Structure formats: C-alpha cells, structure tokens
Amino acid sequence: MERHPTQPPSQTSGAPAASPAASTVASPAGQGDSHGAARGPIVGIDLGTTNSLVAILTDAGPRILGATPNGDIVPSVVRYAVGDGVAHAEAVGRVARETQSTYPSRTIASAKRLLGRSAAETRTFSLGFSLPLAEGPRGIAALEVEGVIVTPQQVAADLLRELRRVAESDLGCPVHRAVITVPAYFDDAQRQATRDAARLAGLEALRIVNEPTAAALAYGFGQSRRSERIAVYDLGGGTFDVTILDIVPAEEIGTGADCFQVLATAGDTALGGDDIDRAIVGHWISAGLAEPTTAAERAELVAAAERAKVVLVDRAVVVERARCGENDVALSLTADELATAAAPFVERTLAACRRALSDAGTTVREIDRVVLVGGSTRLVSVRAAVARFFEREPYVALDPDRVVALGAAVQAAIVGGNRKDLLLLDVIPLSLGIETVGGAMAKLIMRNSPIPSKAHEHFSTSKDGQTNVRIHVLQGERELAQHCRSLGVFDLRGIPPMPAGIPQIDVAFTVDQNGVLSVRAVEKRSGREASIQVVPSYGLSADEVERMERESVEHARDDMTVHRVIDLRVHSELDLKWISEALARVRAALDPVYVGELEASMTAVRALCASAAVDPRGVDANQFHQAKQALDVLSMRVHEVSITESLRKS
Ligand code: ADP
Ligand code: MG
Prior knowledge:
Elements: E1 42-47, E2 51-58, E3 61-64, E4 74-75, E5 77-83, E6 86-92, H1 94-98, E7 107-109, H2 119-123, E8 133-135, E9 141-145, E10 148-150, H3 152-171, E11 177-182, H4 188-200, E12 204-210, H5 211-218, E13 228-235, E14 240-248, H6 250-253, E15 259-268, H7 273-286, H8 295-311, E16 317-324, E17 327-334, H9 335-359, E18 369-373, H10 380-390, H11 403-416, E19 432-436, E20 440-445, E21 453-459, E22 469-475, E23 485-492, E24 505-511, E25 517-523, E26 529-534, H12 542-554, H13 556-586, H14 592-614, H15 621-649
Parallel strand pairs: 1-11, 11-12, 13-18
Antiparallel strand pairs: 1-2, 2-3, 2-4, 5-6, 5-7, 8-9, 9-10, 13-14, 14-15, 16-17, 19-20, 19-22, 21-24, 22-23, 24-25, 25-26
The structure holds adenosine-5'-diphosphate (ADP) and magnesium ion.
Magnesium ion binds next to loops.
C-alpha cells in the first residue's frame, strides 16, 4: 500500500486505511415491486417446520415483512384453546413458543411433519410429538388437543393467517395471494395439503415452489445464460435436506422462463438443530449436571442449550443460566464443545449429500454453486464441513433462515408478471469499502461499477503488538463511516504481535455476477485470514439510494474536511509515537535547545490530535496540516541521529 509503512492506518477497532484501488461491482438494480396489481400484492411465504416468514419484492430487492424489535421470524407454533368440542388458536408464533412448556397439552409445534400424510403412515415413524397422534377425517394424520382432533392443515392455516396479518399490517393493504414454499421431497398430497391450508387462511396459493429453488432465486441464480448445477444444503430445526438442481436458461430449452429442475433430493426428516440442542444437554449432564427429573425441567435445559448455541456464533465460550429443580445453575459451552456436540449430526448430513450426488448421477466437481439454508447452517462447524465436502465456499450472504422467504418473494413477483427482467444486475448503486482508523470510509469499489468485479488494497495496524483487526464493511458515498450503511463486521484475529504499521493486511473485495460481495482479509506474514459475504443492495429502496447520493453531494466538502482531519490525526499519532521513541534513545546526544523546540512542536500536534479525537469538525484541517508539517521537518534531525546511533551500535 502506498502509505505503508511511514503512515500506517488501522487499529483494533478501526481498520485499514488507504485509498481505493477502484473497480467494479453488482447489485440487483431497477426492480419494481409486486404491488400494483389490481388484486393487491403477492407475497412469498416460507412455511417452515420450525419457523415461518413472509416477504415481498421491492425496488431494492426482496424484503421480509413485519420486522419488529423482537424479530421478523414467526415460530411455527400454535397454542389452542378448546371449548364446545372445537379447538381455536389462542396464541400463534413467538408467544406460543415461549409459553410452550407452560401449556404442553395445548401447544402444537412442527405440525408440518404431519401435513399431507395418512394416519397409517405416521404410526410407523416416531415424530416426537408431545401430543397424541390421532386420525383425522378420511384417515389423515392429526393430533389430539385435550380430546379434540386438530389437523395439520388447521395448524398450517393458523400460521398462514398470522403471516397474512403480519403482511397486511406491514404493507397497509389486504393480502389475498401468495407463493408458498415446500420441501423438494413433498409429494402431491403434501403440496395439496399446503394449498388447502392456504385456502383456509384466506390466501390463494398461486404457486407452490420448492424451498431449494426459492433459495437459488433469492441469490439471483439463473442469469448466466448457461446451465448451472446447484447444491442446496438445508439444515433447519428438525429436518435436513440436500437438493441438487439444474438451472437451465430459457433459450436452451426454448421456453419463456428459466427452468429449475430438481435432479435429486436426500435428507433426514428427523435431523436438525433440535438434535444439537439435546446433545448439548447430554454434554452438560456428562459434565456433572443432575439429570432433569421432569419434562418441564428438560424443556428448560433444552431451551438454555439452544440459547447458548445461537449466542456462541463468534465467541469462544458462553454461559447460560437455567432453573434445574430448586436450583439456578450456570451452564457453560465452548465453541469446541459445540462443534463436538454437532459433529455426529453434521456427519449424517454429509452421508445424505453423498447419496444425493449419486442419485443425481453427478459429482462434487460438477456442482457450480453451493447454497446454505436453514438456521443451523449458521454453525461454524457446519459451514466448514460443507465447504470441505463440496470443495468450495458455500453461499452464505443471505441469512440462511430468511433466504427461502426472500426467494419466495422473488417468485411471487415473477408470478405477478410485473418483473421479467427481475434480477438483471447491471451496476452497483453505491460504493463499497471499509472503515479505517478514526472512522473514515475507504472505498474499494466505486459506485456504478459493472459486475462482476474485484478490488484489493493493503492495510496495516496502527498499534504496536496489535493482534486483531476489525474489518467493518460499508456501503455509501459519504466520507465517514457513520454516514454510510453498515453491511457487516468481522475480525481478523491471531496476527502475530508486530510493531504498528508492519503487518501487511490484504483486503480483497469480490462481487460475483449475482451481486454477492465477498470480503476477505489476509495477513501476509502469518497467513491468518478471515472473510464475510454480503449482498450489498438488498434492504435499500430506490429512494434511499437516491437520498444517499444526494446527501453525498450536499455534504461532500464538509465530509472531505473531516476525513482529512481524521487522517491527519491517525498519522500524527503514529509520528508522535515514533518521535518519542527516537527521542528517548538519543536525547543525550541532542542539543537541548533543539529538544525544547521539538517537544513544543510535539505538544502542539498532540493537542490537535486530542481535539480531533473529541470532535474532528472542531479542528481546522489547514492549521492541523501545518502543525504536522512543522513537526515532520523538525523531527528529521532526531530520526537521523537515532538511525546513525543504531547503525553505530550494530
Ligand atoms: P425450519 O426450516 O425447520 O423452519 P430454520 O431454518 O428456521 O428451521 O432453523 C431453525 C433452527 O436453526 C433451530 O434449531 C435453531 O436453533 C437453529 N439456529 C438458529 N440460529 C442459529 C445459530 N446462530 N446457530 C446455530 N443454530 C441456529
Ligand atoms: Mg426451512
């Protein structure tokens, strides 16, 4: 990097500083939305075994509806109240889930496992329902709630009604039409049962789409004009499936639309995050925790295990509290323990991957892309295992627990007929870069760059012995990080301690043809690396893009000044440190008058640094620049003497 090593940037919480090496990127641009049709919007729904979501396509890409501080995910759990021989939904979603252990005899979770199956069929496999299995009308599988039969269609309908309500209150208009996703392995009866549930909820299911196809659509696959083979690995709460599918471009098969063809699907309907939670409880018990004596106690421990698992994401250890009998116990979980608990289940998913490949008559080498779906794929050990198995980095930029709903929204817009050009990516609407020390934004990829594109830049540390660098990925035109949109943060850890400015950190931005941004940071000497994937423009509306552009012009001069002050401060602080070190070594060999002048100049610069640290806007950039230049000139002598001295010694 140009400034390296005399003017290093970056530090523990800020990162690299440098100027953009320019280039290019992509984003789904110029999309319409799926409103506007005379009959109201068409939403996309992921009706999951564990969690459900509803989404819509907007100008800025698909958006999940109903985001609240508690989140946008609706747990697929319904609590029933029974009266006059009928059961009606009393609580749906989060509330029902959180109070599940209080009302075990009236709460239904994972009803999707029974959907479209016959009672006879379900008797043969254990599904782990806390409620008794029953036979519904025409021999269909159902559950019994306090003596009343509840069909899985009814449970699904209650969930869909809640999702419809969420969508209506978010969009502010009635919603009657949806695209609903189902697992690729669902047979006709299961698909029909899903349609029936929609009708009960007052929704017309315009399309039933395979979940893996929706995931591929969310990533905008199918734009490349050549066939692509995709593996979708979906590890949810209670089920696992892997699907191999081909996307065949419209022109190759002479149809109006790209074709998503499922080649094979394999999996396990009793394998998922829940198993990992139970394994964690098993680990605690083998480490000395007393066996739970009641179902409620066990449920409490499993809930603590899930919390620990979810929170652990990028930490080394977490501690959760749970009530165990009379006692309040503290339970710890380390990243290694979590990986060990998950390992046997991860291994079973890989066996299914092997099966799917062989059923599809294909090999890992013929797979073009791998997509991760399902909340449990957030596990580091799952990601690593999938990457190893498929010999490539999987796509993870979209939230794995939201990607199916996002894709359903894309499909909804296609069905609505208002977007044929849908995910045609052309240019990136806003620049991409990282935060540098002091809070400035260093742009690596400039706005309006075409896709795909790459850019990289060298950065360094700003403190001696600094072993971690935080990389904050930003999108926007403004000069300061705080005015840009944060796309994600990751840490490059384990850099061997070196003096400030010596580590060479290469930060690379790659935007592929789907607009997915990968950022990778590598420290050259140690080879330590870390990375993140994001989809830059999703979540921004056309208006927002316009506003950010406008603001960047309005604030350009002001921002530039502040950026300059921040840079001056960063470089001055490093200069001050080096000068102090040199001065400490050779003070005796210097003229005291010179030392006095030098120290006065250092004090002046130090004061400006301090003010800039409090408020960079309150500092005159030109005055700061002059003070720093004066110090640069004055300090030459002390550096010279110091260098001569050390040469003489060696
Ligand atoms: P489904 O498709 O079956 O409805 P989801 O895709 O919503 O399920 O996945 C739910 C599962 O994901 C749960 O087991 C939950 O514990 C797990 N999960 C959610 N977040 C994380 C996380 N950060 N780490 C590990 N597992 C997670
Ligand atoms: Mg799912």
